[in-house]
Amino acid sequence: MARPRPETLYRRAQAALAAGREQAAAADLAAALAAKPDFHAAREALIAVALRRGRIAEAERLVDEGLALAPDHLPYARLLAQWQLDRGDAAAARRVLERVMASADPALHAYYAAVLQRLGEWPEAVRHQLLAVEAEPARGAWWLALGWSLEQLQRRRAAAEAYRKGLACQDLTAELRTWAAGRLRSLEDTP
């Protein structure tokens, strides 16, 4: 009997996940990866299953193997960078993200800028935040992050303008809106 193709195993795993059968899905996803290690959708789904099941070491192994096969694959890099940030290692997160910065993904630039902020590298954070907001100007939180970085560089007028643009966006939470309004008032009240 012929073995099912990786794509067939993946579809079967998706059906098993939809039915709540994670163990069966994990087995099919693992079989799909054994047959085709560069099957990114199957690897990403298996990582998600491992994380839901609390198998962090397995998820990390799958990410490491995925990055070895595709060093510039953004989902693996973002996940690894997030784990490194969670462990307090912003420098390691930066190194991982630098490998994939050729991506034109504005979300990656915004995320990388957040890592740079944690490292206190304000000019470089501003550069990446500008790339992000130029590509997607309706992302209020990105404008606020830009404003914060500009404030750290004592560029008060530019920071105030970034806060205004962020406040004009419709996607801010009430908490972020309150914070940004306070920052803007502080900048406007101080000469």
Gyration radius over CA = 21 Å
- Report the portion of residues in β strands: under 5%
Helix content: over 70%
Broad structural category: mainly alpha
Number of helices: 11
Count the beta strands: 0
What characteristic shape results from the CA principal axes? Answer: elongated
Query: How would you spell out the order of helices and strands?
Result: HHHHHHHHHHH
Major sheet details: none
Low-confidence stretches: none
Q: Average the pLDDT over all residues and give the rounded result.
A: 93
Distance between the termini: 79 Å
Note down, in words, how this protein is organized:
The chain is an all-alpha fold. The chain has a domain at 1-59. The protein contains eleven helices and no strands. The protein has helices spanning 6-18, 22-35, 40-52, 56-69, 74-86, 90-99, 106-118, 122-135, 140-152, 156-168, 174-189. α4 packs across α5 (74-86), α7 (106-118) runs antiparallel to α8 and α10 packs antiparallel against α11 (174-189). The protein is elongated and about 80 Å long. The N and C termini lie far apart (79 Å). 34% of the residues are buried.
